[in-house]
Design goal:
- The chain has 22 helices and no strands.
- The chain is mostly helical and 441 residues long.
- Helix 5 runs antiparallel to helix 19 and helix 15 runs antiparallel to helix 18.
- The termini are far apart.
């Protein structure tokens, strides 16, 4: 009882706010509303392709646009958390996304569909890049949540955070086509903008940084802030070594092997979340709502949910072995999608490749602290940021096959995933052999 009173008095004395549970809820909420931008253009890509008159390559670039900022901004904004806490970096990312959605909504309201021209293509891409800043909230929220929880509780907290937040693209991919039918494209995006704006305001109003950062902002010296924060239960204290961690991890070859693996699994997940609706519409003639449901339930939600199970089996059997198995699964799914000419076979391929990517994502992050133990934070930044860059690189490559082969290119483009899967399998074996040699030595 005395300890509880002591904590309460400390909170009152320094006017500290928030609890670990509230910190987790708000970080997850911020990530959820921002990460939905993965599905920004995928469900409407075919409509925009028609009115803009663009090539398959430019269509892929449009679908991928949100993932450019969503991947590259992860690294600097995650590093910034160690300096100022998570509230400011995550809020700025969400505000940038709000500006992007506002611009897109206004453009569509004013010009879509009769007065929109090909000259507006790059403006729509820019609005997509701005909106994609919300995707980068992932790495900020991870750090924000970690500072609230002791080490023994971080597994559950971070699993909850990533699991719920990762559902956003699938859920929005389902909702958007129904909204399009009910309200039309411009109003649907205006409603999305409204949701994002209100959500951002709610996040800013209710979120609080972990106690250490609150104390520093109140002028408490770092040594005293550290002591008080630990008395209140905060174990993780920033050391100011994030940039050094990035430098150290960049010099370790295993870091770049893990980047490659995550490029295939998570970057591939981001790319296909936007690409599968286009695939189902163009390759099999489904309408927008059916294509979105196929993407969400057959791929996006599946890959997100199975990631939790992937973490458990990686703990039990080893990340390298599960990574090898997962990339063989990705390979199998890609081969099926490459050769399939029947709907049910293609759907099977989608489910298999989604399962492989979800498990692969979990296996990779299981390996980060194992291979880069002295600079885990920096390695996680490189892996999470540059790995997610695959979501920007892959869709334009898929679009090039459409330009060359016509509608048949939507299936032939999966040769890209066959190649990536083979390379990832080889890299997983290299990591396994390297670790085995170190253990023997």
């Amino acid at each position: 009882m005395e300890e509880k009173l002591s904590k309460t008095s400390l909170m009152q004395k320094y006017h500290l706010k928030g609890t670990p549970n509230m910190g987790l809820i708000m970080a997850t909420f911020g990530f959820f509303i921002g990460f939905a931008a993965v599905s920004l253009y995928g469900p409407v890509a075919t409509k925009l392709k028609e009115v803009l008159g663009i090539s398959g390559f430019l269509l892929g670039l449009l679908v991928a646009a949100p993932n450019l900022s969503g991947s590259l901004l992860r690294i600097p904004f995650a590093a910034w958390v160690d300096k100022v806490g998570g509230k400011k970096p995550l809020a700025i990312l969400l505000l940038l996304a709000v500006f992007g959605m506002a611009g897109l909504s206004i453009l569509l309201l004013m010009y879509y569909p009769d007065h929109i021209t090909k000259s507006m293509y790059w403006l729509i891409v820019i609005f997509g890049i701005l909106s994609g800043c919300g995707i980068a909230t992932f790495s900020v929220g991870i750090a924000q949540t970690s500072y609230w929880y002791p080490q023994k509780k971080q597994g559950v907290a971070l699993g909850t955070y990533a699991g719920i937040g990762n559902l956003a693209p699938g859920i929005f991919g389902i909702i958007l086509p129904f909204a399009l039918r009910a309200f039309g494209l411009p109003v649907s995006y205006l409603l999305w903008f409204g949701f994002l704006l209100i959500g951002t305001v709610v996040y800013i109003f209710f979120v609080h940084d972990a106690y250490y950062f609150q104390l520093i902002k109140k002028g408490v010296k770092p040594e005293e802030a550290t002591k008080i924060s630990k008395e209140l239960g905060q174990e993780l204290i920033p050391t100011g070594s994030t940039l050094e961690s990035l430098k150290i991890s960049a010099k370790i070859p295993s870091t770049w092997g893990l980047v490659l693996l995550y490029f295939t699994s998570f970057g591939g997940f981001l790319a296909l979340t936007g690409w599968f609706p286009v695939y189902w519409i163009k390759n099999y003639g489904f309408d927008l709502r059916e294509a979105a449901l196929l993407m969400a339930f057959g791929f996006s939600l599946l890959a997100s949910l199975i990631r939790v199970w992937g973490g458990r089996v990686s703990d039990k059997f080893g990340g390298e072995r599960i990574a090898i198995l997962s990339y063989f699964t990705v390979l199998l799914g890609a081969i099926i999608l490459f050769f399939a000419h029947a709907f049910w076979i293609s759907l099977l391929g989608e489910i298999i490749i989604g399962a492989g990517m979800g498990v692969g994502n979990a296996a990779v992050f299981k390996l980060v602290p194992k291979y880069v133990p002295k600079a885990t934070g920096g390695a996680a930044g490189w892996v999470g940021g540059l790995g997610a860059f695959g979501g920007f690189v892959v869709p334009p490559l898929l679009g090039m096959f459409v330009d060359h082969y016509g509608n048949a290119g939507y299936a032939k483009g999966f040769i890209v995933y066959i190649i990536l899967a083979v390379i990832s399998i080889i890299m997983s074996f290299i990591l396994l052999k390297t670790h085995s040699k170190k253990k023997v030595a």
